């Protein structure tokens, strides 16, 4: 069996790594890793290969940035000849980025079966590009590997055949559990003179939060107020950095005491500061899941989530993007702490094992 694994952007790497590792002893399966090049900065891509011990990509499509249509089309144009030449038995895609959708479309039209890792997630918000990518990838896929029972339900409600849906648990948590101990030893927070629980972590990159300058500067204003209560470490995504610079607020932010601006961090350094944070503020999907697993309170700067179990069972609070609820929840967590988290079903470090069992069967 020959499988092409697709990875394109930062959130793909921690989902593909455990599957490749789990497959490596099986000599009856040939794995080819295709990097689309959607993310290309060393700290958005290369460092994840080192930290997660991923093999070098067999093929890099080097698509780079562009509008949604440009980026998706470039991945499709460059991925099609790879499929024609390699004739894989399966294309495995992960998550919800433009590369996921583009490669699924190419494979489907060439009648190559598709496995979607992290299938069935829904925010029910079609203004998110990720939601469009998820819905269409799921429709095209033959093996839908879900991280939660909510995801199974979403797929059934969408009319996906039951025998295509496989609840396997959360593969991102396989990476987290595999790396946590080494990550913790790094004590990355020392870089800024902090100790565990002495700071919060912020990440921000969703188009809905950073593309509109007014909304972005309002959010930054709120974060600056929060940083008066507890220092905030902010590894800045390249998209967000560009917007902050264009809005003319980056320089001023550099002079705010308690607001630590830094480059995007690698997997281990980020896991270290996240695991030891007093709380996190984020608009990322993955970090909502990771904080639940780590028992770190999380304020999600969005109105919806594709991970409802992180709210019902975990540490997540959906606070939206308005100043008042963000600051009052921030304050409440500092005073009272967070409710204890329970570990959602299948978030046990064995998701990749279950995926590989199903694929080989
Ligand atoms: C993408 C994914 C999003 C994921 C996020 C994680 C889509 C639609 N979005 O968003 O789901 O949560 O990655 O990071 O696929 N850039 C660089 N260097 C890089 C990569 C990007 O400078 O290595 C800049 C480029 O200017 C680019 C911009 O960031 O235009 C946005 O990158 P893009 O891949 O379009 O989307 P993300 O915002 O990163």
Write up what this structure looks like.
- The radius of gyration is 20 Å and the shape is globular.
- It has a seven-stranded parallel β-sheet, sandwiched between helices. A six-stranded parallel β-sheet has the order 10-9-8-11-12-13, sandwiched between helices.
- It folds into two domains: 2-170 and 346-360, Glycogen Phosphorylase B (Rossmann fold, 3-Layer(aba) Sandwich), CATH 3.40.50.2000; 180-336, Glycogen Phosphorylase B (Rossmann fold, 3-Layer(aba) Sandwich), CATH 3.40.50.
- The N and C termini lie close together (11 Å).
- It has helices spanning 10-23, 46-51, 68-86, 98-109, 129-140, 149-157, 171-185, 207-210, 213-229, 238-246, 250-254, 267-275, 285-294, 309-312, 323-336, 351-360, and strands at residues 2-7, 30-35, 59-60, 90-94, 114-117, 143-146, 165-167, 200-203, 232-235, 259-262, 279-282, 298-300, 316-318.
- Helix 1 (10-23) crosses helix 16 (351-360) and helix 4 runs parallel beside helix 5.
- With 361 residues, the protein is an alpha/beta fold.
- The model has no long low-confidence stretch (mean pLDDT 97).
- Helix 5 links the parallel strand 5 and strand 6 (143-146).
- The chain binds uridine-diphosphate-N-acetylglucosamine.
- The site of uridine-diphosphate-N-acetylglucosamine has 20 residues, from helix 1, helix 5 and helix 10.
């Amino acid at each position: 069996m020959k499988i092409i694994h697709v990875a394109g952007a930062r959130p793909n790497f921690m989902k593909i790594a455990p599957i490749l590792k789990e497959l490596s002893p099986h000599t009856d399966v040939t794995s080819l890793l295709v990097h689309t090049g959607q993310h290309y900065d060393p700290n958005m891509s290369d460092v994840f290969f080192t930290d997660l011990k991923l093999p070098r990509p067999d093929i890099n499509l080097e698509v780079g940035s562009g509008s949604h249509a440009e980026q998706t089309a470039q991945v499709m144009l460059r991925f099609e000849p790879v499929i024609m030449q390699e004739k894989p038995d399966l294309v495995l895609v992960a998550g919800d980025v433009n590369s996921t959708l583009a490669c699924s479309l190419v494979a489907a039209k060439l009648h190559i079966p598709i496995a979607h890792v992290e299938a069935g997630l829904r925010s029910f918000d079609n203004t998110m590009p990720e939601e469009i990518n998820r819905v269409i990838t799921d429709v095209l896929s033959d093996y839908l590997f879900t991280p939660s029972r909510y995801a199974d339900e979403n797929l059934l409600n969408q009319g996906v055949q039951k025998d295509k849906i496989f609840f396997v648990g959360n593969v991102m948590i396989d990476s987290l559990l595999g790396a946590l101990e080494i990550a913790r030893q790094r004590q990355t927070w020392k870089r800024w003179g902090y100790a565990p629980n002495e700071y919060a972590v912020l990440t921000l990159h969703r188009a809905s939060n950073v593309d509109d300058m007014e909304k972005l500067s309002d959010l930054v204003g709120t974060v600056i107020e929060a940083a008066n209560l507890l220092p905030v470490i902010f590894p800045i995504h390249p998209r967000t950095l560009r917007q902050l610079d264009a809005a003319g607020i980056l320089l001023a932010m550099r002079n705010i005491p308690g607001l630590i601006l830094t480059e995007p961090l690698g997997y281990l350094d980020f896991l270290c500061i996240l695991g030891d944070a007093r709380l996190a503020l984020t608009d990322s999907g993955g970090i909502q899941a990771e904080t639940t697993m780590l028992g770190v309170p999380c304020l999600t700067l969005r109105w919806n989530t594709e991970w409802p179990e992180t709210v019902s069972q975990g540490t997540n609070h959906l606070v939206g993007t308005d100043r008042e609820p963000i600051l009052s929840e921030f304050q409440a967590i500092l005073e009272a702490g967070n409710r204890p988290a329970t570990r959602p079903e299948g978030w046990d470090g064995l998701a990749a094992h279950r995926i590989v069992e199903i694929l080989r069967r």
